């Protein structure tokens, strides 16, 4: 299998080119998997960069929220919760309390569990 039709280049250069191309492929796989970008809304370079920048910014903000509030939910689940409460004036920590991601009070040692037999 030929990676390039330039046979004058040394093998190390061709390997470095292939590694660079592979990094681009991995980046786009990461975009599709984590940023939920299935297609680009525009065709220009600026439109693609803007859409990627917005998606990465959203992902970083969700990661910060997840770390600060010590949540165990996936970033996708957090995005779902925030998208439901986007038109409500709610503190971020309160948005996750109602869904059981943050316990309001720690259970006491003498409190019985429903499924304790």
TrEMBL record:
A molecular function annotated in GO for this UniProt entry is: DNA binding
Q: Which InterPro entries match?
A: RNaseH-like_sf, Transposase_11
Which segments constitute the Transposase IS4-like domain? Answer: 2-61
Q: Which residues form a coiled coil?
A: none
- Listed Pfam families: DDE_Tnp_1
* Single Gene Ontology BP annotation: DNA transposition
Task: Write the protein's name.
Answer: Transposase DDE domain
